[in-house]
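Q: Hi! First time asking for a complex rather than a single chain. Here are the components, and I think there are two in total. Is that enough to go on?
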Amino acid sequence: MDVQTQNKWDRASRTYDFFAAVDDKRLGSEKEQLLAKARGKTLHVAAGTGNDFKFFPVGMDIVSIDISPKMLERAKIKAAAYKGSIELREADVHNLDYPEATFDTVTTVFTFCSVPNPIAGLQELHRVLKPGGQILMLEHVRSTAIGPIGIMMDLMTQLTRQFGPELNRDTVGNVQKAGFRLRRVENAYLDIVKMIEAVKNRSTP
Amino acid sequence: MLLQIGDYLAGAMIGVVTALIVRIIIWSGMDMVIAMLVGGGIGMIVSLLISFMLSPLLGIVETMVPGSLTGMYGGMLFAMRDSMAAGSRTMAAALAVGAIFGIVVTVTIKLYNHALRGTVMEAGD
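A: Yes, that's all I need. Here is the structure of the assembled complex.
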């Protein structure tokens, strides 16, 4: 377990809901649109305080993991309110305690900006996903369409990585490097917030 | 609607605060390159702090992207003007330029967002 990352998010759990108060007004419809595509046994990575649970279709079988026990403690009430099954588990996405080919769907919402080793994390998700399974992601990434914003994100990341996420990641590229095949990519805000859908090939062991 | 108004106010606020601090710190005759770097640094920190403070009301991404552009590039611009004594003559005028710059950047980002939103790649199953 990455104790440094765990401590960072344990501290953030106290103010997480306060700072995420309007997230659903801004990007709630995108979250709903994306998570509506979840099928079968689903692994939700980075539960946070459970703000995304309400966007899942009712009646699903979901395992929601987070590296922070304090986040999971806060997520309990929202998990109990979900009309389906949500099992909360403390876990590090780099090293999951699940056998290969366990899940039909993996979902992430603003997660891979903060995972210390994103390709290793995505490879681990690839491992636990069944062949033909899908990964659904809403993530913020480095802008490539607007040059000055890309440069600004590179500079700002030197500050933001000290206390939170990295702003300049190429998550679409990382998904492919981890072995997934892209199915669909949609810009939700500029070319910075993206909905990414990818699949694990059926022939992949 | 309130979020949209908030976006413009946040842009203006970041522009004003950046212009204010730059006006206080940068003196006429200062080396222009140094002034530009200092102005950009000031703007970056100002925009991060204000975006962070406003994020519970407006959302962090939507505030930080136009805000940091206003702060960083605006800070550079304001500092260059002030170092060359080519800037606004009064503090009020300098702050007005900051506010206008912030609003213009916010409008530009909204136009870009309109153009860029949507599907960029679809391969199917």
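A: The helical segments of chain A are 3-12, 16-19, 23-35, 69-81, 118-128, 147-160, 171-177. Let me know if you'd like any chain examined more closely.
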